[in-house]
UniProtKB/TrEMBL annotation:
It is a multi-pass membrane protein. PROSITE patterns: ABC_TM1. One of its GO terms (cellular component) is plasma membrane. It is found in: Cell membrane. It comes from Enterococcus ureilyticus. This is Methionine ABC transporter permease.
């Protein structure tokens, strides 16, 4: 095995610690972006559903404004957004490179996508259940927490998995401008220095993270479905 690795993955063997560090950096970016964008995206998605045309707090003005903002943000390619919000990134973190700096564009890029996913997930909740809750005098806040978020939990988990998989890809893209992580390693060492084995292994690790995320979400969906 050692001979095989030396023959086909010589550069990988020399960069063991770099691969470990890059994997940790990728997990760091994914975790904190998922937490921050998850909270804000869920809040925004709930507001979209509640103020939508058929929502429990229907408000055309608020809904139209939020929808247009989300549509505009989702239309901007992420690689352009990285450059576009550099002043904001520098203001918040003091720099535009590194994993912490990458959190700013990652969060801003993920929130609109996740909010729309949450909206679609909550719209799948049976309207009959919502009407029953309203007839029992449940407050709008109670309907949100006891009906929408409970009944829509399997769908929320499913769209969260899709978002995290998308996020892993965005962290690799952010690596192109010095954000660190596996994407940065694959480009700076693998692509720029023609070390194909580094690119291959970095890609395989990213795929493992994606499959692990999918497996965890599928398990949670089975446990929460009823």
């Amino acid at each position: 095995m050692q001979t095989f690795l030396q023959n086909y993955f010589p550069n990988v063997l020399l960069l063991k610690q770099e691969f470990i560090d890059s994997t940790i950096e990728t997990l760091y970016m994914v975790f904190w972006t998922a937490v921050i964008a998850g909270i804000l995206g869920t809040l925004l998605g709930v507001v979209l559903v509640a103020t939508g045309p058929e929502g429990i707090l229907a408000n055309r003005f608020i809904y139209n404004i939020l929808e247009k903002i989300i549509n505009v943000c989702r239309s901007i390619p992420f690689i352009i957004m990285l450059a576009l919000i550099q002043p904001l990134t520098r203001f918040l973190t003091g720099t535009t490179i590194g994993t912490t700096a990458a959190l700013v564009p990652l969060v801003i890029g993920v929130i609109p996508f996740f909010a729309r996913q949450i909206e679609n997930a909550l719209l799948e909740v049976d309207s009959g259940v919502i009407e029953a809750a309203e007839s029992m005098g449940t407050s709008p806040l109670g309907i949100i927490f006891r009906v929408y978020l409970v009944e829509g939990l399997p769908s929320i988990i499913r769209v969260s998995s899709v978002t995290i998989i998308n996020l892993i890809g965005l962290t690799a893209m952010a690596g192109a401008i010095g954000a660190g992580g596996l994407g940065n390693l694959a480009i700076t060492r693998g692509y720029n220095r023609f070390q194909t084995d580094v690119t291959i292994v970095a890609t395989l690790i990213i795929l493992v993270l994606v499959f692990a995320s999918q497996f965890i979400s599928n398990t949670l969906i089975k446990k929460t479905s009823h």
